[in-house]
Amino acid sequence: MKRFFNSRETLVTESLDGLLRSSMGQHLCRLDGYPEIKVVLRKERNPEHVAIISGGGSGHEPAHAGFVGEGMLDAAVCGSVFASPGVDAVLAAILAVSGKAGCLLVIKSYTGDRLNFTLAAEQARDMGIPVETVIVGDDIALPDSRFPRGLAGTVLVQKIAGHAASQGEPLDVVARKAREAAEKIASIGLSLTDCNAYDTAHKTRLDDTQAELGLGIHGEPGAQQIDVAKADNLMAQAAAALQKALSGGEKKYALLLNMLGSIPPVEMTLLLEAFAKTPLAQKVELIIGPAPVMTALDMNGFSLTVIELTDDITKALKASVEPPAWPGVATFGKPALRKMPALPETFEVAASSSPQLEALMRTGAEALIENADSLNALDAKIGDGDAGSTFAEAAKEILNALDRLPLADPHALFGTIGRVLTRHTGGSSGALLSVLFSTAGRSTSSWAVALQEGLEAMQTLGGAKPGDRTMIDAIDPALKALADGGSIRDAAAAARKGADATRKMGKAHAGRASYVPESQMNDVPDPGAEAIARLLEAMSAS
């Protein structure tokens, strides 16, 4: 288990103190009750307003301490990882922030939270403090459950209650609005993994082909296991299950797309695009996120939460708040577009035919596509693991352009290939190869010498030279063989020798591999040089 922590016992207190030191926690403080009482509260609040208090087990960050601030919570009561805080901790929070207006406890529907928060509320009432409670059970995965679980919908209730309190509403009105909101919320979760609550003996219950639909936030098994599939398919299943639980009619909703822990940002927004393709998306007017709001440690999954919109709820959700963890609300619509500016023409010269050259180019391109995965695996050892994909992307663009290329005119062909690579391929290798071909296309020398001139320009721009452990170690000898009158078979043999030589070159002096320790590069060929060698070998074999 690789995790950043010192001990499970000190994890929560150290994390909370880190929050208070951070740029996101300057408006916060805590009660001096460690380790048993872990309560985060606002430094300043209006004592005439109803106090909003929530909390529960830790491991769901930014919930709940991250939502303490003006417009949301006045205090968050934090338990140990996935464990409800005790009655005394909840009571301490009530006593710390409640004035004459009283307080509202927003409680996630889990047994420990319901018991401890309710008992603390009773004790506070006995002390003369007005206390109301709202229990949030928004999970629809188990429709026959007597006590549905509280998921990310809890944060929406905190937002709505916090807004009502900030407007000076009395306790009975704040509680009523919170309860009405809780009744209008539904959630479901989907994950590719379970989570590890800092258990060194943890064993996952899911293999690489399994996912779970309808899950809680404490690592408990989901309502059903499903097959891992593409993002669109998984999102469609989650959205369909959620929509089935909603009442019909023309109701409109806000959607909270919540991340459960370890999904990278590029996948967060991809998941929102996947949701946009579902029928449920037609009923959504507002979007919150995607963002981590109610997480489950390192769980690789998401949850969907919808809340039926009313004028009051819409106003409450849109109101600005102090906690930076609140992701904000926006209109859910189509991506904004702007007209594409005119770019230089890629195919400046009319297409011409050369059946033999076309066959060679097709063979080489197909070889790069077929070798994409193995080149990626090679690149993962010393780079970022995308060399094969970059070369395959370039190859696909060349294949798509074959019938528009001036195959009978070498210099025009080089220039066109350079423009195709510039327009359609990424990565440093795509840019450098586009320089090589574009320069060769402008040359007045013979085609073989023109390619060498292109290589010189490529070296000048990229800063690499033969012996630096890059694709130049295969390109340079191959082009020299062609310039000396050799065949493509001679060029392929020279490229192979150059690529194999990179295995023993030690530390790279250019490219991303130059940041990798020499000890990790022994007997690993440069992926770019290997790609060039395999390209020419395939063409030679044909």
From TrEMBL:
Region (Disordered): 499-526
InterPro entries found in the cross-reference section: DhaK_dom, DhaL_dom, DhaL_dom_sf, Dihydroxyacetone_Kinase
Keywords, comma-separated and alphabetical: ATP-binding, Kinase, Nucleotide-binding, Transferase
Biological-process GO terms, alphabetical: glycerol catabolic process
GO MF, one example: glycerone kinase activity
SUPFAM superfamilies named in the record: DAK1/DegV-like, DhaL-like
DhaK domain ranges (all copies): 7-326
Gene3D superfamilies: 1.25.40.340, Dihydroxyacetone kinase, domain 1, Dihydroxyacetone kinase, domain 2
GO cellular component, one term: cytosol
All copies of domain DhaL, residue ranges: 355-541
Protein name in the entry: Dihydroxyacetone kinase
Lineage of producing organism: Bacteria, Pseudomonadati, Pseudomonadota, Alphaproteobacteria, Acetobacterales
